[in-house]
Specification:
Layout (H helix, E strand, L loop, with lengths): L8 H6 L4 H23 L4 H34 L3 E8 L4 H21 L2 E9 L5 E9 L3 H5 L4 E7 L10 E11 L13 E6 L6 H6 L3 E6 L4 E5 L5 H28 L15 E6 L4 E4 L4 E4 L1 H5 L4 H22 L1
GO cellular component, one term: cytoplasm
Organism: Candidatus Taylorbacteria bacterium CG10_big_fil_rev_8_21_14_0_10_41_48
Keywords: Coiled coil, Methylation, Protein biosynthesis
Length: 332
Amino acid sequence: MLNLKYMDIAKYKKNHKTSYLADMYEKLDKEEIDLKALMETDDSMRELGQADLENIEVQKKEIMRQVEAIDTADKQEEEFPNELIMEIRAGAGGDEAALFAEELATMYRAYAANQGWQVSILDESKADVGGYKEFSMEVHGRDVYRRLMYETGVHRVQRVPETEKMGRVHTSTVSIAILPIRKHTDVEINPADIELEFSRAGGKGGQNVNKVETAVRLFHKPTGLAVRVTAERSQLKNREKAMMMLTAMLQEKKDSEEAAKFAANKKGQLGTGNRSEKIRTYNFPQDRITDHRIGESWHNIATILSGEKLGDIIETLANFKGEVAQVEIGDE
C-alpha cells in the first residue's frame, strides 16, 4: 500500500508507465508549497487558499491511486508473466512418442487460439515418420503463464500404434517445459560461456530462410543447455530470441534447484514443477486422461486433444492450487 502522504517521485519517474503521473505529482507538490508560503504572508489568501489546498490533495490522492494500480499490475505480471516459451520433446517410445508430441503441440496451439493468444513457432525438429522430436513456441497473451504453468512435466500416452499388428498397447512419453519470460531476471550470462552456431533453417519460409544461414544455435558450456531458433528470417532476430530462450531455461534451472531445497517443507505443492516429473497419462483404450498430482480423471480424449476441452483440466488444476493456498493461509 502506498503512503498517501508521500510519493517516491524519483522511483516512479524511472518507470515509463508512471513517469507522467510522477511529473504531475511533482508539479502539484510545488503548487502546494508555493500556495502555503503565500498563505503565510497574505492573510487574504488563507480562506481561498484552503480550498485550493484541498483540491490539490484530492488530485494527489487520485494520482497515488493510479500509481498503486499500476504497481499492483506490474507485480502480478512479474509473478505471472503474459509471455512464455513452451518446449515439447519426444521421450521414450520412439516414433509413437514423436507422433504424440505433435498431437500435444497441436492441442496447445488450438487452446492458445481459443484464448486469443499469439503463438510464434521458434523451432521444430521433425521425425522421419512424422511428428516432432522437438518443438518450441513462444506464446503471448493475458494470463498465459497463470493458465499453463502446471503443464510442465512428463505426459505419458498409452495406446495401440497404427503399426502394431498384435494389438498390444504401447507406452510412450513426451516432456513439456513451460518457461516464463520475465522482465526482471537474476540470471547473468557470461558471453565467453556461449558457443554460437549459424545454419540454414529448414521447412517453410521461402528462399531466404532456406538458403541463408538464419538459424541460430546457442550452447551454454557451463550447463550443457542448448537452444535453436529458426522462427525469423533475420539472423539477428533469431539470435535475440535464442538468448531470451536460454535465459528462461537458466532461470527455470535455478528456480527448480531452489524449489527442490524447500519442497519437503512445502505443504500442498502441486507436483515438483520439474520437467522430469510424470504428471499425466493419456489412456486411449479407456478414453481417459488422469492427472497424477491431484488424482483427477477426464474422459473424451479426442475433444481434449482438439484443444476444446483442455480448459477443463487447466481450470481444475488452478482451482486445486487455489484451495490449497487458502488452507495454508488458514493454518499459519
